[in-house]
Recover the amino acids of this structure.
């Protein structure tokens, strides 16, 4: 439960938020700047406050030059687009390589291809990417333009006139009407409510859809309501990201009074249930808290793509070695034949023809320069060793993969009508390597819909049986007729408890039940919204005509559930102002004056309200966590002890099934107690120094010697399939961390409900209020649980990853699943009880510093589960960055609210939930879906498939181009190290574009190593991505060795078969072209796991298209290879040579695969065999 500000007295009280302690420390603590997250805030220093002159923007801005209200979220401008975009694109090492190749080809001695043509491939890729990036940024510019050109009413020349948002300045007075969006951060001066009360919705800011209350100070509210001009001076803190606190003073009518967070409305919020508000702008544009909390969206790149840069470097070295061999060989050959250069039949250094050039050198620059030019020319000839086509192929494959993810009917949410969205095409394969999932709680794991389940009243349990369903029809009608209120949702009620409340029975039990439900109705910050019910014309009774629909809005869904439950039992809260509430008790209206309210905070873990009844009796009503409530109860009689024990037993029972519990108590206040409390409360609520601490001390005056009334149990409805999804992710070796703004008890309760936390876990709780305390708590936890330091952990990183989360990852040399089970059993016996870390945002303020971060990292990575409670949006990003910056593990963040945006952008993969809390998370995400449970299928199925496909795709493309280049290399070694080729230029161009590209794309999109059922049934198969089985450096070198062998077979078998013949070089080139295409396609066919019709068409059709192109090219008389294919195809030697090449080249690969699968099968191979046998 999260309880926030509400000032329920006639004058305006400045009540600290529940997280005030956290935010107070946030504004005082030195912060660490991680890679992408800057926690440094501009703080309020006594010597440098911001001065805002109300309704005097000229005086306000002339002195300080505050920013205007224009915002910009786009990456580029017209001037910076080209250099900035090119800089980002050239992070791909291969692009730099192709740029160098294109530059070399511009030199006259090296123009192997046409100068202009050589630029086309690189320019094409750069332009396509730039157009895509430019379009995305144009959309951001359009969104910014629409936002900046919205209009609001601003006080000008004595009246309110429309003014564009981007022209609003600090110091101006702005008027906002109902349902309008707040254009900037404003201090409230007045509202349509005479008491200065306003309701706002902060969905766009913190992700919460419930209404919150804000107040104008009584001193200004009365003046505004009477139509007087308001002038004065506000001294406030410098702009900062802290959305939960605001510290300022106002001088008005020669009075000086404090302002707090309850007096400010922030940009992006919407005005609800209030006709209008008037406020003065204190922060505008980029200085607003909303903009300061919106991190710049980073350009995400696939981790596998970053590994490709490493392999590209190795291929470049390999290419340089080959070119050096050719160049050195060329130099030695020229030196050996330097006296015969004019007489050799195939080499000339001078013109021999008659004419003006006779005797002149023919592009001959001497042996040293000829050697150097040979080096550069061979680089150009061998350039496809690093395939630029790979990047185009990957983009097309990712596009195809995205299409099938979007069309997956198993990830369609019928409730919201939303289907899966791929908002980024760069990181599909990263979904198959995720190690850490960082999840929001409210709206992501839960539906954010609370249901009242049980009540323990005066030591007796109600709600588990005897529900309304068992009541007679007569009893139902009687219950309904007594109430003229219709709730938005139906609530099951206990007939026995209802009877006791509605019968005039003597005794303590009925009095306790009465005060119990009165506390539920009164001790909260919920806002009742009453409307005439249009659907109540049932015709049963005339009294139905008077039924009014009532809906409750509040910052805490728990409170809404409790107030709704009270209403269902006949205690309906239907009116709230800043000074009183009105409760309908079985048709009798009871007005209660609210003298003061102590909100929930993380220290007291309870809230209380002091109310005065019409007979001048004053009571304090309290509800809170059991850990904080039982210590302040009165201990009078043996009967009280029995009630306490019974209630504790009920609480244990409720908690064991994952219900959220609260204890309810109350007591009467004497005149002396009331007078002392009122005096202290007034001083504490207006204090500028340690306000939160003083309010806690004041609350302690009345929160003592309470009479126990009972306890409540609420169920926070989990989304469907959440426990199953979390368990599957855990079995897959993925750690799930929950980062939430809710209080600690709520997070722990939900952790139990969704099976994230289990009864056998040892909980490490870090709740520190100072840096030293946090340091001691961390050190104590490390010592008590034997946690290694991060330095020692790095030495055992590989072993840690294989046994992380208490699960034994599947070993590479496992022969059967039975062996796996035995090994896993032994491992579990050796592992100690799993750990769960629970830490609050207050502690993170101190811990997110360099000297404590390593301690937190050591403990957190040793735990199976981490729960972070009461965390600010930027702290969520800081936790993600803690893992990102210290490990190579893939991180995924998932959330549904605007407060999750920073976390989503920080993680390697960001997933947005299309929930009830706006679309900010979706807009900032890489992928979006309707329910958390779809994450299981997204990672375990599509993530696995995409990683396996793209990993193989990259290795295959390296192989496909390397075998072609090596074939050319062997030929050059046999032709005096010249850079001539037996293949036509058309064959070289078509090889990557037409002959071999289509099968690669089809397999990259459609191939499946395992069915989705198997992948979901055995989540541990996901570990293949963690172990980088589909793509790693070892696989790369094995592929290169295989490529070397195949290229030797490809080149020398035709030489051997035709050594006694008179075949010409163009015929040999034609044979090599056909042979290499057939070889690489059959090589691909050997690795395809799932054959469908389109796969057959792509692979075998590619070979047929190659033959067709060869026939067409060889039929053109002007080409030197004219008619060669016709002569070759009639010879049996030709077909025998191709067959021999295929068998000899692929035999070693075939034998290695067979031996490996028989003696060292992978998990995937075992699962495939199980599928076949099924």
């Amino acid at each position: 439960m999260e309880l926030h500000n509400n000032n329920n007295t006639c004058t305006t009280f400045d009540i600290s938020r529940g997280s005030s302690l956290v935010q107070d420390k946030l504004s005082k603590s030195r912060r660490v700047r991680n890679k992408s997250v800057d926690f440094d805030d501009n703080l309020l220093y006594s010597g440098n406050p911001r001065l805002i002159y109300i309704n005097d923007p000229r005086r306000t801005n002339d002195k300080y030059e505050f920013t205007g209200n224009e915002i910009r979220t786009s990456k580029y401008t017209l001037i910076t687009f080209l250099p900035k975009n090119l800089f980002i694109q050239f992070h791909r090492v291969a692009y730099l390589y192709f740029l160098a190749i294109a530059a070399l080809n511009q030199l006259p001695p090296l123009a192997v291809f046409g100068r202009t043509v050589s630029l086309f491939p690189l320019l094409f890729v750069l332009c396509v990417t730039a157009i895509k990036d430019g379009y995305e940024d144009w959309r951001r510019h359009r969104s910014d333009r629409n936002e900046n050109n919205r209009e609001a009413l601003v006080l000008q020349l004595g009246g309110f006139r429309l003014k564009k948002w981007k022209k609003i300045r600090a110091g101006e007075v702005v008027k906002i009407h109902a349902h309008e969006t707040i254009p900037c951060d404003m201090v409230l001066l007045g509202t349509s409510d005479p008491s200065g009360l306003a309701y706002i919705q902060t969905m766009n800011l913190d992700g919460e859809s419930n209404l919150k209350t804000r107040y104008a100070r009584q001193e200004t509210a009365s003046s505004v309501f009477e139509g007087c001009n308001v002038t004065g001076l506000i001294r406030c803190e410098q702009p900062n990201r802290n959305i939960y606190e605001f510290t300022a003073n106002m001088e008005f009518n020669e009075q000086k009074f404090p302002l707090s967070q309850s007096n400010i409305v922030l940009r992006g919020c919407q005005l609800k249930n209030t006709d209008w508000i008037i406020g003065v702008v204190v922060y505008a544009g980029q200085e607003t808290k909303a903009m300061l909390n919106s991190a710049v969206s980073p350009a995400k790149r696939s981790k596998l793509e970053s590994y490709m840069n490493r392999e590209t470097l190795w291929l470049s070295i390999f290419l340089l070695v080959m070119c050096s061999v050719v160049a050195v060989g060329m130099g030695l050959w020229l030196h050996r034949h330097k006296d015969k250069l004019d007489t050799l039949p195939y080499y000339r250094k001078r013109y021999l023809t008659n004419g003006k050039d006779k005797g002149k050198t023919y592009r001959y620059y001497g042996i040293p320069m000829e050697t150097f030019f040979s080096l550069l020319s061979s680089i150009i000839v061998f350039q496809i060793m690093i395939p630029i086509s790979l990047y185009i192929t990957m983009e097309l494959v990712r596009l195809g993969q995205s299409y099938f993810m979007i069309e997956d009917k198993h990830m369609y949410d019928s409730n919201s009508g939303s289907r899966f969205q791929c908002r980024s095409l760069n990181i599909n394969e990263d979904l198959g390597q995720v190690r850490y999932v960082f999840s929001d709680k409210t709206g992501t794991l839960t539906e954010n819909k609370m249901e009242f389940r049980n009540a323990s009243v005066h030591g007796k349990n109600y709600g588990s049986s005897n529900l309304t369903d068992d009541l007679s029809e007569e009893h139902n009608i009687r219950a309904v007729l007594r109430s003229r209120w219709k709730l938005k949702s139906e609530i099951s009620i206990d007939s026995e408890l209802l009877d006791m409340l509605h019968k005039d029975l003597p005794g303590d039990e009925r009095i306790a039940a009465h005060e119990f439900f009165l506390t539920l109705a009164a001790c909260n910050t919920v806002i009742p919204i009453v409307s005439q019910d249009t659907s109540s014309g049932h015709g049963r009774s005339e009294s139905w005509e008077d039924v009014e629909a009532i809906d409750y809005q509040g910052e805490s869904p728990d409170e809404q559930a409790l107030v709704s439950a009270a209403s269902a039992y006949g205690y309906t809260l239907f009116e709230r102002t800043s000074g009183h509430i009105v409760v309908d008790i079985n048709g009798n209206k009871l007005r209660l004056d609210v003298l003061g309210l102590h909100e929930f905070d993380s220290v007291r873990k309870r809230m209380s309200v002091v109310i005065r009844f019409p007979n001048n009796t004053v009571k304090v009503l309290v509800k809170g966590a059991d850990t904080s409530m039982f210590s302040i109860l009165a201990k009078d009689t043996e009967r009280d002890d029995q009630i306490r024990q019974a209630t504790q037993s009920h609480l244990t029972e409720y908690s064991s099934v994952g219900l959220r519990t609260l204890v309810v108590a109350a007591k009467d206040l004497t005149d002396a107690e009331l007078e002392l409390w009122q005096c202290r409360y007034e001083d504490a609520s207006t204090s500028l120094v340690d306000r939160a601490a003083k309010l806690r001390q004041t609350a302690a005056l009345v929160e003592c010697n309470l009479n126990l009334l009972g306890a409540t149990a609420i169920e926070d409805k989990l989304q469907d399939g959440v426990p199953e999804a979390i368990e599957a992710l855990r079995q897959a070796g993925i750690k799930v961390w929950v980062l939430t703004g809710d209080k600690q008890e709520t997070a722990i309760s939900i952790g139990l409900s969704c099976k994230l936390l289990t009864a056998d876990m040892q909980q490490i709780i870090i709740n520190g209020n100072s840096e030293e305390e946090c340091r001691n708590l961390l050190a104590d936890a490390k010592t008590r649980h034997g946690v290694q330091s991060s330095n020692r952990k790095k030495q055992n990183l590989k072993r840690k990853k294989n046994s992380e989360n208490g699960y034994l990852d599947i070993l590479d040399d496992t022969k059967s699943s039975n062996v796996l089970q035995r090994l896993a059993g032994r491992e579990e016996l050796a592992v100690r009880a799993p750990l769960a870390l629970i830490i609050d945002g207050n502690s993170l303020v101190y811990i997110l510093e360099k000297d404590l971060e390593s301690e937190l990292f050591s403990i957190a990575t040793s735990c199976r589960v981490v729960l972070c409670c009461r965390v600010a949006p930027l702290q969520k990003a800081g936790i993600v960055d803690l893992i990102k910056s210290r490990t190579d593990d893939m991180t995924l963040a998932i959330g549904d609210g605007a407060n999750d945006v920073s976390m989503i952008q920080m993680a390697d993969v960001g997933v947005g939930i299309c929930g009830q809390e706006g679309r900010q998370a979706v807009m900032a995400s890489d992928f979006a879906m309707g329910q958390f449970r779809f994450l299981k299928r997204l990672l375990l199925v599509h993530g696995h498939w995409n990683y396996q496909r793209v990993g193989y795709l990259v290795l295959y493309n390296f192989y496909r181009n390397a075998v072609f280049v090596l074939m050319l290399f062997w030929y050059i070694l046999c032709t005096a190290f010249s850079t001539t080729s037996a293949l036509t230029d058309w064959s070289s161009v078509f090889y990557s574009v037409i002959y071999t590209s289509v099968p690669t794309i089809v397999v990259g999109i459609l191939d499946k190593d395992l069915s989705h059922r198997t992948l979901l049934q055995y989540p541990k198969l996901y570990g293949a991505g963690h172990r980088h089985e589909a793509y790693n450096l070892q696989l790369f070198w094995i592929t290169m060795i295989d490529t070397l062998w195949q290229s030797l077979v490809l080149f020398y078998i035709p030489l051997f078969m035709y050594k006694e013949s008179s075949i010409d070089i163009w015929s040999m080139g034609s044979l090599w072209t056909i042979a290499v295409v057939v070889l690489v396609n059959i090589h691909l066919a050997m690795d395809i796991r799932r054959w469908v019709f389109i796969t057959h068409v792509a692979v075998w059709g590619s070979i047929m298209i190659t033959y067709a192109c060869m026939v067409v090219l060889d039929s053109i008389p002007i080409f030197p290879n004219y008619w060669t294919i016709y002569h070759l195809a009639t010879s049996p030697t030709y077909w025998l040579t191709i067959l021999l090449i295929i068998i000899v080249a692929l035999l070693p690969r075939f034998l290695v695969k067979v031996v490996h699968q028989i003696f060292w099968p992978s998990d995937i191979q075992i699962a495939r065999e199980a599928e076949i046998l099924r």
